[in-house]
Amino acid sequence: MEHTEFNKDLIGFLNASPTPWHAVSTMKERLVKAGFECLDERDQWALQPGRGYFVVRNGSSIVAFRTGKRDLAGSGIRMVGAHTDSPCLKVKPNPELRRKGYFQLGVEVYGGVLLNPWFDRDLSLAGRVTVLDDQGQVQDVLVDFRKPLAVIPSLAIHLDREANNSRSVNAQTDLPPLLMQAPENDTTSFADVLKQQVARETGVNASKVLGYELSFYDAQGASLVGLKDEFLSSARLDNLLSCFIGLQALIETSGNEAALLVCNDHEEVGSMSAEGAQGPFLGAVLDRWCGSEKARIIARSMMISADNAHGVHPNFADRHDENHGPLLNRGPVIKVNHNQRYATNSRSAALYRHISDELGLPHQTFVVRSDMACGSTIGPLTAAVLGVTTLDIGVPQFAMHSIRETIGTRDGYTLFRVLREFMQRAEVF
C-alpha cells in the first residue's frame, strides 16, 4: 500500500465517521472483515492464542487486540491509543427555537471548539438515538442525515462594523443553527424529525424518542488539496486520523506478537467517563486477558499514544519554539513535555526513533514554547492508570479543533508504517 492508496482509504473512513458512534461502527466492520471476533463484556471470554478480538463500550469506545503466539509475561503487549471524539456542537435535550418564523436548534459546545469557522458552513447532523419501537422495545440506532440541512449565518459586516477587529462568539446566542422557515402555527418537534429519519435510515418505526446524542458536522467531505495534492483537509482529523492509522496497523500486523488498539471517547472533555481514558475500560479488558500476570506483562509492554501535533503555520511561525517547529510532510512528531502533559520519556522516544530510522522514515520533535500552556492527550492518563511506558506522537496538522483541519498527505502513511512494525516487533522492553 502506497500513501496515495492509504489516503484514499482514509478519506472513505473519515466521511463514514461523522460521530464517535459511527467511527466505532466503521472500525467494527473493518475488524470483522479482517477476521476479528466481537466480544461482549457481559459474557465469559475464552481467548485463544493467535486470534484477533475486539470489545466495544457505549458504542463510542473500542479495544481491539491480537493475542499473539507467545507467552505474554515474556513478550508484553504493543499498545496504540487514540480517541474517537472531536470538538463539535451537540444538540440540547429540548432544542426547539422558533424566532421570527425560523426553526432553529439549541446547541451545546463540546470540547475546545474553534467557533468562528462554524459560521456559513453546510452542516449536517448525525449520532445515536434511543427509541421505543412499535413492538415496545427500547433500542439504540445510528442516524446520519448526510445532506446539508442547517447553517449558522454570519451577521453581515454592515451590522457589525468591528467584526474584523474584535469579533467574539457567544455560545448561547450566536450558535443555534437555522434548519428551516416555520409559520407561527407550525408544531414541528425535533422528536418528530428524528422519528422520520430513523424510519428512513433504519426501517425502525419509533413510537417515541427516549434520548439522543447528536452532533452537527461539516457536510463537506474530506478532500486532497494543493497544486500537487500535498495536503488533505477534513473535519475530525483530530483524532480519527490516529484511529484509522492504529486500526490499519493492527489489521496488517503479522499477529505473532500481542498487540492492542484502544480508541477512547471523551478525550476532548477530560476523559473522565466509563469509556474514557481515565475510566476503567482498557484496564478491565487487560485484567480479563492477562489475569494474575498483568503486572509482569505491563512491565514488558509499551503504549504509543497517537494524537495530532501542531504543525508550524507559515503565517504564525512565532507561535512555535524555534528549534521544535514540525513541518507537514516531514514525518510524525514526537511530543515532549517535561511537566508530563505528554507521557514521552527518553526511553519510549528512543524506541520510536530506532524503528523509524531502521525503516528509513522521517520523524520530528515538538516542544511547546516555554511561555505558552501545553495541551495534553490520553497518553499521560493511560500511563498513570496502567503504569505502562508511553510515547506521545502525532501527525502534524493545521487548524486543530476547527471544523476543518489540514494534514500533509505523507505523514499518516509514515506513522502507519512505524506503528505496524512496532506492533509486530519481537522485543519492546
UniProtKB/TrEMBL annotation:
Record keywords, A-Z: Aminopeptidase, Hydrolase, Metal-binding, Metalloprotease, Protease, Zinc
GO cellular component, one term: cytoplasm
A GO term for molecular function: aminopeptidase activity
Biological process per Gene Ontology, one example term: proteolysis
Cofactor: Zn(2+)
Enzyme Commission code: 3.4.11.-
Entries under Gene3D superfamilies matching the protein: Aminopeptidase i, Domain 2, Zn peptidases
Xref: Pfam families: Peptidase_M18
PANTHER family named among the record's database cross-references: ASPARTYL AMINOPEPTIDASE (PTHR28570)
Family: Belongs to the peptidase M18 family.
Protein name: M18 family aminopeptidase
Species name: Marinobacter fuscus
